TrEMBL record, chain A:
It comes from the Bacteria. Residues 1-27 form the signal peptide. This is DUF4439 domain-containing protein. Keywords: Signal. It comes from Nocardioides ganghwensis.
UniProtKB/TrEMBL annotation, chain B:
It comes from the Bacteria. Signal peptide: none annotated. It comes from Nocardioides ganghwensis. This is DUF4439 domain-containing protein. It holds the Pfam family DUF4439. Transmembrane segments: none annotated. Coiled coil: none annotated.
Length: 176, 142
C-alpha cells in the first residue's frame, strides 16, 4: 500500500486495525470481523432495536433481489450486467439474515418489469437507489457500531454496483 | 478505540493519502492520460477537503490534530499510467477501510460524514478503473 508514513506506520495500522477487529454479535448469530490482535475487545451485544433495523434491511435486500431477478427474466441479455449485483446482494443477505435468526426472511413477489432493456435497467436503478437509501439510514441509526460498519460496507457496495449500472463501461475492470 | 482515536487514525491516513496523490498527480500526464489525470486531480481535491474536515472534527472532539509525516512510503514504481491507476485504487480502498472504522466508532453527524466519504471512495475506485466489490472496506467478510 503506498502512502504509509515512514515513521508512524506501526501506530497507524494498529489504531485502525483495532477498530476493524472488534467482535460483533447480533441477536442469536454472529457477524465476526477478525479476532482482535490483543484479544482485549469484549463482545458487546447490541440493543434489541438493532434486530428490527436489520430485519428492515433484509426485507429491502429481498425486494431488490426480486427486482433483479425479474429484470433478468424480462431481458436475458442483461444477465451479465446484473449477475454481479445479484451475487453481492445474495452475500449481503446471507450475512444479515443469519443475524436475525428469529425473524422470518420475507418472500417478495416478483415485480412486473416492463419489457425492453432501457426500461428494465431503469427499474433496477430505481430499486438499487431505494436499497441504498434504506441501508444508509439503517447504518446511521444502528446502535451497534460494528453493525453500522457492516451496513456501511453494504451501502458502499450498493453504491459501487449502482455506479456500474449507471455507466456500464465503468466498473468492468478487474479488481486490483 | 474512542471516536477521537478513530478520527486521528483517519487523519493520519489522510495525510499519507494526500501526499501520495500529490506524487501520482505529478507523474500523470494531462495530455497523454487526460481521464486518469482528471480522476486523480478530483481525488486529490476531495481528499484535501477530507483532511481539512478531519482536522476540524478532531478539534471538536477535544484533540490536537495529528501532524503529517515528512515523507511516506511508496510501494513500487509509480511511473506508468497503469501503476498510477492501481496505486490510486489502492488508496481509495484503504480509505474506505479507515472510514468504516470511523463509522463503527462514531454516531450522529460524524458517522453520517464518514459514511458519505466512504461511499465516495468506494465509487471513485470505479472511476479509477477498479471493480465493484461485495464488502468494500471490510475484506474479512469476503
Amino acid at each position: 500500500m503506498p502512502g504509509r508514513p515512514l515513521t508512524r506506520r506501526t501506530a497507524v495500522v494498529s489504531a485502525v486495525g483495532s477498530a476493524l477487529t472488534a467482535p460483533f454479535v447480533l441477536a442469536a448469530c454472529d457477524i465476526d470481523p477478525p479476532a482482535s490482535s490483543d484479544g482485549s475487545s469484549p463482545a458487546t451485544p447490541p440493543p434489541p432495536e438493532d434486530a428490527e433495523l436489520v430485519a428492515t434491511v433484509v426485507a429491502e435486500l429481498v425486494r431488490a433481489g426480486a427486482v433483479l431477478e425479474a429484470a433478468t427474466l424480462s431481458v436475458p441479455a442483461l444477465t451479465p450486467l446484473l449477475e454481479p449485483v445479484a451475487a453481492a446482494h445474495a452475500d449481503h443477505l446471507a450475512l444479515l439474515s443469519g443475524a436475525v435468526a428469529d425473524a422470518d426472511v420475507p418472500a417478495s413477489e416478483p415485480p412486473a418489469i416492463a419489457a425492453g432493456r432501457a426500461r428494465a435497467l431503469a427499474a433496477v436503478r430505481r430499486s438499487e437507489q431505494r436499497l441504498q437509501r434504506a441501508v444508509r439510514q439503517a447504518c446511521l441509526t444502528a446502535a451497534s457500531g460494528d453493525l453500522a460498519r457492516v451496513l456501511a460496507s453494504v451501502a458502499a457496495s450498493t453504491a459501487q454496483h449502482g455506479a456500474a449500472l449507471a455507466d456500464p463501461a465503468v466498473g468492468q475492470a478487474e479488481a486490483p | 478505540m474512542s471516536t477521537l482515536d478513530a478520527l486521528q487514525a483517519a487523519l493520519a491516513e489522510e495525510h499519507a493519502t494526500l501526499w501520495t496523490y500529490g506524487v501520482l498527480g505529478a507523474r500523470t500526464s494531462q495530455s497523454a492520460s487526460p481521464a486518469l489525470y482528471d480522476a486523480v486531480t478530483a481525488a486529490y481535491r476531495r481528499h484535501r477537503a477530507r483532511r481539512d474536515q478531519l482536522r476540524l472534527l478532531v478539534r471538536d472532539a477535544g484533540g490536537e490534530p495529528v501532524a503529517a509525516a515528512v515523507a511516506y512510503e511508496l510501494d513500487g514504481a509509480l511511473v506508468r499510467p497503469p501503476q498510477v491507476q492501481r496505486a490510486a485504487v489502492g488508496l481509495e480502498a484503504a480509505g474506505v477501510e479507515t472510514l468504516l472504522a470511523l463509522v463503527a466508532r462514531s454516531s450522529g453527524e460524524v458517522r453520517d460524514w464518514a459514511l458519505t466519504e466512504a461511499t465516495w471512495s468506494a465509487v471513485w475506485q470505479l472511476e479509477l478503473g477498479g471493480a465493484a466489490q461485495t464488502w468494500p472496506g471490510a475484506p474479512e467478510l469476503d
